[in-house]
Fold this sequence. Notes:
Layout: H1 7-11, H2 15-22, H3 27-36, E1 44-48, H4 54-61, E2 65-70, H5 73-82, E3 87-90, E4 103-109, H6 119-126, E5 127-138, H7 158-167, H8 175-182, E6 186-193, E7 196-199, H9 202-210, H10 213-222, H11 224-236, E8 245-248, E9 251-257
Parallel strand pairs: 1-2, 1-4, 2-3, 4-5
Antiparallel strand pairs: 5-9, 6-9, 7-8
S-adenosylmethionine binds at residues 1, 4, 7, 11, 23, 26, 49-51, 55, 69-72, 75, 92-93, 109-111, 213.
Amino acid sequence: MSDWRGVDTGWGRRAVDFSTLSEPANCREYVTLHQHLAVGPGDRLLDIACGAGLAIELAALRGAVCAGIDASHRLVAVARDRSPDADVRVGDMHELPWPDGSFDVVTSFRGIWGTTPKAMTEVRRVLAPGGRVGLTVWGHLKVSPGAWALAPFRLAAEEKVSNQASMVALGRPGAGEELLAAYGFVDVRRIDVPFAWEFPDPETYARAIASTGPAFESIQNVGEAEFLASAAEMARAHQREGLPLRAEIAVVGYLARTPDPRSVNGEGSPPPRSST
Length: 276
Ligand SMILES: C[S@@+](CC[C@H](N)C(=O)[O-])C[C@H]1O[C@@H](n2cnc3c(N)ncnc32)[C@H](O)[C@@H]1O
């Protein structure tokens, strides 16, 4: 993708708001995927489209040696501040700046979409034989009780909204399984991933959502003041006395691994890693 250098314009412009008001609620997703992938001491882990790097910080707490990459230099600055020992780089997921077989685990949280399948070639290349991959994407949004929280993204121009729709296609039944199999991954599994955004009030929700890339597409279309007012208005209908605003959204996780020639048929589990 030649336009990755433009990504920071939308994703980086409110990096502090994103990392403090929006990203922390994604922790349920990060913890779940790390647990399923059995991320542990000594794992060399790469997080693709790492954003402000909270997932990297959590993986390092499990003992992983972490790297990350994101197109937004302002989000990468936050990730580096949080994890000074991690190798976090600014760059394009379609051209990863690490040699073949550098990692035991690759994760990407809503970073690799149906519209960016070529990134899978790179995931495969940088994973060691038997390496584990875990990706998340939005699931069935229409049946998600918290889908209202994504509605302000539809204030973008029609063509941008339709691109957003193709991006979420990877969450459809069979889509991710097919993609991973097409790129030579084995032991492909689909899981439901818990995901809930929480906010103290409609105005904080509006400010949090305004810090994201797709919100920027809406802001370009309707202006920031109207975006913030519309988003807060949408949220007001979901306020509950004495409780946070809570938006539960369906997220799908895909787990797989690269074939391991050391196993009997090249597809099974690699030998257990030594704990010493
Ligand atoms: C939905 S956000 C997810 C961020 C992070 N994984 C999280 O959980 O908050 C998508 C991220 O993809 C990054 N991104 C978009 N295009 C990219 C590209 N071509 N290469 C690397 N990162 C990219 C954006 O900067 C943004 O941080």
